[in-house]
Each structure stands twice: as C-alpha cells, then as structure tokens.
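WP5 quarterly update. Target: Acetate--CoA ligase. Source organism: Pseudodesulfovibrio alkaliphilus. Length: 638 aa.
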Amino acid sequence: MDQSGALDSLLTEERVLRPLPQLVIEANINPQELEAARKFAAMDPLGYWEEAADELDWFKKWDQVLDDKDAPFYRWFAGARCNIVYNALDRHIETANKNRLALIWEGEPGDSRKYTYFELYREVNRFANALRSLGVRKGDRVVIYMPPLPETVIAMLATAKIGAIHSLVFAGFSAKALRQRINDCQAKLLITADGFYRNGQIINLKETADAALVGSCAECVESMVVVRRCNIGTEMTDGRDFHYDDLVRQERNEAPTEVMDAADPLFLLHTSGTTGKPKGIVHSHAGYMVGVHRSLTSVFDIKPTDIFWSTADPGWVTGHSAGIYGPLLAGTTSVMYEGHPNYPQADRLWSIVARYGVTIFYTVPTMVRMLMRFGAQYPKQHDLSSLRLLGSVGEPISPETWIWLYKNIGRSECPVLDTWWQTETGMFMIAPLPISLLKPGSVTKPLPGVEVDVVDREGNSMPPGKGGLLVVTKPWPAMMTGLWNDDDRYKEYWTKIPGVYYAGDVARRDEDGYIWMQGRADDVINIAGHRIGSAEVEAAFAAHPAVCEVAVIGMPDRIKGEAAKAFVVLNDGFEPNDGMIKELKRTVRNELGPVAVVKSVEFRSELPKTRSGKILRRVLKAEDMGHEIGDLTGVDED
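Structure tokens (predicted):
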C-alpha cells in the first residue's frame, strides 16, 4: 500500500432503481430544476445560498452573504438579525399553518399529545417567560437532560427564543457524562424530568441529574427545572429545584422573541470518543437555519400534507435538524416517540406509522437491522400505504439492508434516501432527491451548494473507483461556527488536509459521480497492501440472509499484515456453527474476491454500540487483543 490514504474498492453494486413516474410528476423539484440549481450553485454559490435565505424571515438583512476574512472561522449572513424560533414558530401564526398540527407525540405506555403550531407557540412563550423569571438571559447556557417529550421541544425553542444557548444531553448518559458537559459550558440552568419509560421500565432521571450536580458543577447551575412525566417521588432541593408545571402555570402566553445577530450561538452539542474532553460543537442562528431549511425541504420534498417522523432522539444532531428545527421551519407535522422500538413487541414503529398516517420515515441502519431480525411479519400486520419516502442516516447502509427497507417497509414504491452529514455539518450534505436514480448503498451526489471531493492524504483527487478521504472543499451555511472555548481543536478540521474540511470518513466516487461511504478513516483494514474500508466487508457479510448485524476489524496477520475478523449477530432461525462460518466466508469471497481475507468469524448476541447506535469497532478490537477498553461513559460519536 502507498501512504497516500488511497483505498481499494472491491464491492460492486449494479442495481439501479428509477423513481416512479408519479413521484417525478408530483415532486416539488423536477430533474430539470435540480440540474439548473446545481449549475447556479456551481457558478454563484453565494447567490444560491442568498436565494435560500430569502425564503425565511429576517429582522434585518445581511451586509454580506459570507464573511471569510477570518477563515476557517466563517461567518454566514454577516450583519443580519434573526432568530430561528421566529421562523420555526412565530411566522406560522400569521399564516394558514396556525392551526396545523406541529407535533404528534406518543409515550411508550400509549398516552399521546398533539400540538398545533398555535398551541406550541403559546407553550413556548409561557416557558420562555418562566426562563426569564429564573434569571436566564441572552448568551446563558441551558443544559437539557431529557427524553423525547413535548417539553423537550418546548425547552429547546424557549431557550433559543430568549437568546440563551441550549445544550442537549442524551437521557441515557450517566451522571459523570452530564457533569462533564455542564462544566464545559458552565450552564446556568438544568432542565430534566422525574423519569421516563423505556422498554416497560421507569428510568429515574432526576436521581441521575442530582448525582451530576456536585463540586464545581453545583456551583454554576443555579436552578433545575423538573418535568413531571412519571409522577414518581423525587427529592426537590428548596430554592434550586422547580417543577415545570408550577413555573408555567401563571405565565403569560405571549413573549418577545430576542433579536439575535446572525453569528450568535444557537446551541452546543457535544460529541466525543472514548477518551479526551468532549467537543462542544457550536451552531449559530442564521447559517444553521438557512442550511437546514433548504436541505430538508429539498431532500424530503416537503408538502403541506406530510407527516414527518425522524426516529432520532433529540439529544443527537439528527434529532435537532430533522426531528425538531427542520420540520418546524418547513411548517410540517412531525412525530415523536418516547420509548423502545420493540415495546411491547417488534411492530411498535409500524403501528405508529399506520395510526398517524406517517408519510416520511427517517431512521438509522442500526434500527432497520434490529427490526430485520424479526422478519417481514410485523410490518405486514400494518397498513403502511401512507408512506411515500424513506430515509437513512448515521452510518453506511449496506445494499441488502437498503433493499429490505425498500421492499418490506416501502412496498417497492418508496425511494430510500440515504443521507450523509455530521454533527459538525448541521445539514444534509450528500443525498438523493425523490427524483434521483438510486443505487442501493450509495448516498448519490452532493446537494446543490455543497462541494465535496475524495482525496489522498496530500489532497489530490482520487480517480473513480478508488477510495480515499472525504473532504468538503467550500464552506456551507449550516457548518459549525467553532468548538466551545477551543479554537485550536476547531482548526484541526481544516489543517489535516490544508484548505478543506476533513470529515474523517472514507469514501469512493463511482464512474457516475455517486459517492459510496466506506466507514470512518480509522476503520480501514490493510490486507496484503490493499486498504479496504470495513463497511465494504460488512456489506459483503450482510448479503447473506443469516446476518443481522456485523462488525469487521483488522487483526494482525504474519503473512498479510492484517486480516479481517468479523463479529456477527445472526437472524432468528440460523445456527452459529462451523458450517455457517464457511458459508459466510464463501459469501464474502464471492462478493469481494480473494483479496478480502476473513481470518475468523465470532458469533455474538449483540455488538457494543455508542448511545446513538453506531457500532464500537475499537472496543471489539481492544477486547480481542486483550487491551484496556477504557472508560466508555458518555461515548456518543456522531
């Protein structure tokens, strides 16, 4: 292998799916308009994004679309005044959207709540007034340690409405992980719940929140707001802790929306690995708002009749952009579910789709693979005919997982729109539209206004079919504006390959210009000089009907340098034995050829994952080699 970072691409996928004629006819953007948008964005990228910004409301327009004099600290819509909540809520109250459903929420026990835009607007105003009464002001940080509840959405919007900065922490994180994030942003207020329902159990969340507030953490947090979800007895500290309903009961349902500078921070979202200080990704009001609105409405072809469901927890960037802010900016209806997808049985998601008439279903490959284990029997029990679009996010989706989703959930009528983006990018970057030709497993092409390349470590473009490092070559509106109190660490994104944004992913571009994600840059296996992305080998395993989930790592090999080892979770009804190992190795050889040497296969009942559902290959490697795994508390890679 050369030292350039090039990868060998062995997996081929020849299936191409054309959009149904009716989809093309009804699409908001037709193929000619998409091509024109690509040309316009290529010739005048700032003009393209200015046009996107004009679709939203501003208190004051910008002096310039992009201020790049302090690159890589780019400032979009410099000089503008705005507030994302004005566009997500306030402006809809003056339109026909006022009485449209904004949010449909279902709890795990089966309880539900619905909010129109007007009702949500008034709830946000009440809590915004409550926050101000607690002394929260513009620029203060508010940590929201909450499960998927309507109050989670209300808390985010109310915080942003008054100009404070919200930082969501996934409710599955430990007290230590919560404490670390509170300390990093020096939060003034913590919002949590007494508990929540998960897989038939009540999780006591207030207890964990209390455990986090010790030492310096207790000194910066002045107040804690507690939502009564499960009505379990919780200890309340006098003068510090307040029940949510007690606070909002007497508040007015009108509240002024703070006028924000375009570059003012909207939220922090921490992302980290197994070691080191979590990175506090910062997104700001203006650029994030424009990028999320344009990319979500384009990719998912949002229509007035849509009911959009992103299954992501609000604690992840997908929950922010595709679960809350994006749908509200678009004026559509979104669904939120509190509990476990398999409770009380493996048809819960399909039951929700059928009962509420969900039209767009956006989820992660991990979820699809988990549900694949139970076969097609559960989706067949429900009427899924309301669905018109399916989406995937979070990690590469294997062609076979893509096809299962397309056939069994989409009835071979709903395109599967696989999207590539990150916590750092804020918005969709590479994705098809409903009118696109689709290749199962590919994220297709960059969206208009987004420019990417596949390069070696020196920044040289790789030829079609050759894998390399994915980079973004020009700034985009929803990009992070920095890392909280860590400018040097932020600059590393732009210095690993000078002049471009280093995404940390490996990919290849095929002869049609389609992008195929091959995994993270540190998940590359070097077999006899051939650098192969682990995602490619995993996709080859997934071609066998017995395989539910698989993780592939590189292990030392005296002859070839490295060989692949696979950790496999089998579907129900298949036996983990020597015969199955031979079958799986044969499948991989047939899919990839003799280069992909699989040294061993180990069967497992489950694989270690991050809280957002991504497989922790390095944990498997450390276990297998007898190395220290390290502290996994709060691991939340995005």
